[in-house]
Amino acid sequence: MKLWGGRFTKETNPLTDDFNSSIHFDNILYPYDIKGSIAHAKMLGKQKIISSEESVAIIEGLKEILKDIQCGKVEFDISAEDIHMNMEKLLIEKIGDTGKKLHTGRSRNDQVALDMRMYVKDQIESIDAMLHNLQQVLLDLAVEHKKTIMPGYTHLQKAQPVTLAHHLSAYFEMFKRDRARLADCYLRTDIMPLGSSALAGTTYDLDREMVADLLDFKAVTLNSMDGVSDRDYCIEFLSALSMIIMHLSRFSEEIILWCSDEFNFIKLDDAYSTGSSIMPQKKNPDIAELVRGKTGRVYGHLMGLLTTMKGIPLAYNKDMQEDKEAVFDGVKTISMCLPIFTDMVKTMNVNKKVMYEGAKKAFTNATDAADWLVKKDMPFREAHSIIGKLVLYCIEKGKNIEDLSLEEFKKISPVFDETIYDHITIEACVNNRKVIGGPSIESMEKVLFINRNYLLEN
Ligand code: ARG
């Protein structure tokens, strides 16, 4: 007989049990469900809604069930639908009729809302720690590669020289914002919904603040209808995860390009590469490709849940059970991607010489040549045009700008003198960019100092 079977005259169809049940995925909520139930039972006891003996018996029973599950002794029952009713059933089996009192003043609707909020809070902390690790690796690499000059691109065309430290630190900033988004989502997740009951609160004199304190929530929800039907925090969380994997995916794309024969900027460690079943020479960046590929599924979960929620009238509706697989798989995906991605980046080999040579090609010092003219009091637009002509001349002659003789320079503009050469070396192009946020060693050192402190504090 179902826990809710009183008003029914027939058994449910097995297909209904199958279709309706969520135990095969929401079983991972068991630690939260037990913790939440223990807090609820403590509060019921303190408020004398149940006797203190009953409260203690329930709490002890729940603790034993926790141990049983951890030892693999429990097999969940599909006809008990979800983790919440499975737990209640197990409790009644373990301690008898007293177990039937646990659900006093509570509904599965506020129970599941509580469990999910506890779960999301924990996952935010765990994913944040993974992002911290990745940032630490990026910071260490940036310190090592302050002088590793490489081409910076726009439109995937060589644009101006930067350093590898500068390039990697761009991702450091993205992950800072990702962590801030998670922290912000945490604030709105950290609100305790138990006491909302089915939708309209309860007639029992519950101490909701006590439950919030016991479960480490900073506040309680202020509207019981919203308390049971809000899934904004799940959507926000998936949105934060989508942004994280979007950043990982851009980074993956660059890694895939960089280890191609055409770029040859890096070599991935063998431990983070794979081979081909037919082509013996192949070494493929599968990890980066998979991270890029998994982006689609995280976005999919975000769009899926947004769509699930869009037409649901207040308050709880079963549609909301669809939040779980979306959030759980989003968490699983990100939690798999982050550590392996971090190790892959940490162990990659940087081909400094190729990066340097690459930066010297394709006139990446053209802007600096124009800037030199501007410093000689020429309007920038005019300088731009002169250097454009100079580049055209270089393309015809197959030379770099810095390889031209002074006569060749002067033929294009009489303003040029020999001091131009010092300003257009690749090192000068990087290190004259002293603006904060720029790639020069000087400005990178300032930012690396800020980022080092950031990691100590965050
Ligand atoms: N398994 C359900 C879910 O995940 C729990 C809440 C069910 N409540 C109900 N009244 N059917 O949403």
UniProtKB/TrEMBL annotation:
The enzyme's first-digit EC class, named in words, is lyase
Listed CDD domains = Argininosuccinate_lyase
Q: Which GO terms describe its biological process?
A: L-arginine biosynthetic process via ornithine
**Assigned GO CC terms:** cytosol
**Per its record, what are the GO molecular function terms?**
argininosuccinate lyase activity
**What are the Fumarate lyase N-terminal domain coordinates in residue numbering?**
6-300
Keywords from the named record? Amino-acid biosynthesis, Arginine biosynthesis, Cytoplasm, Lyase
Q: Which PROSITE patterns match?
A: FUMARATE_LYASES (PS00163)
- What residues does the Argininosuccinate lyase C-terminal domain cover? 363-431
* Annotated metabolic or biological route of this protein: Amino-acid biosynthesis; L-arginine biosynthesis; L-arginine from L-ornithine and carbamoyl phosphate: step 3/3
Q: Could you tell me what reaction this enzyme catalyses?
A: 2-(N(omega)-L-arginino)succinate = fumarate + L-arginine
* Localization of this protein: Cytoplasm
- EC numbers: 4.3.2.1
Stored NCBIfam families = argH (TIGR00838)
Family stated for the protein in its record? Belongs to the lyase 1 family. Argininosuccinate lyase subfamily.
UniProt-recorded name of the protein: Argininosuccinate lyase
